[in-house]
C-alpha cells in the first residue's frame, strides 16, 4: 500500500478505526468524512481512487453507498 496518497492513507486508517473491514460492517462516505475531518469532495475523490486501485469495495445501497477495506 505504498502507492497510496497521504489522503488515501488517512482514509484507510479512519476506516480501520471505524471497523469497516468486512462487508458486514460497511461505512458511508459521510462517516469516513467526519472521521477524517477533511473536505467531502476530497474524501469522495479519494474513495473512488481507492476503489479503482482495489483497496476498498463500494457497496451500492438504497440510501447511501457504503465502503469497506478489501486488504490490510
Key features?
alpha+beta, 72 residues, single chain, 49% helix, Arc Repressor Mutant, subunit A, 3-stranded antiparallel beta sheet
Task: Walk me through the structure.
- With 72 residues, this protein is of the alpha+beta class.
- The N and C termini lie close together (9 Å).
- The chain is globular and about 30 Å long.
- 49% of the residues lie in helices and 14% in strands.
- The protein has helices at 6-18, 29-36, 40-53, and strands spanning 27-28, 56-59, 66-69.
- The chain has a three-stranded antiparallel sheet.
Task: Give helix % range.
Answer: 40-55%
Beginning-to-end CA distance, first to last residue: 9 Å
The fraction of residues assigned to DSSP E strands is 5-15%
Number of domains: 1
Stretches where pLDDT falls below 50 for ≥5 residues? none
Task: Summarize, please.
The chain is α+β, with helices and mostly antiparallel strands.
Which helices and strands, and how do they pair?
Blueprint: H1 6-18, E1 27-28, H2 29-36, H3 40-53, E2 56-59, E3 66-69
Antiparallel strand pairs: 1-3, 2-3
Helix pairs in contact: 1-2, 2-3
Amino acid at each position: 500500500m505504498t502507492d497510496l496518497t497521504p489522503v488515501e492513507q488517512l482514509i484507510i486508517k479512519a476506516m480501520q478505526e471505524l471497523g469497516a473491514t468486512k462487508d458486514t460492517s460497511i461505512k458511508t462516505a459521510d462517516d469516513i468524512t467526519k472521521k477524517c475531518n477533511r473536505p467531502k469532495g476530497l474524501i469522495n475523490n479519494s474513495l473512488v481512487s481507492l476503489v479503482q486501485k482495489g483497496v476498498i469495495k463500494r457497496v451500492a445501497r438504497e440510501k447511501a453507498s457504503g465502503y469497506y477495506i478489501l486488504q490490510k
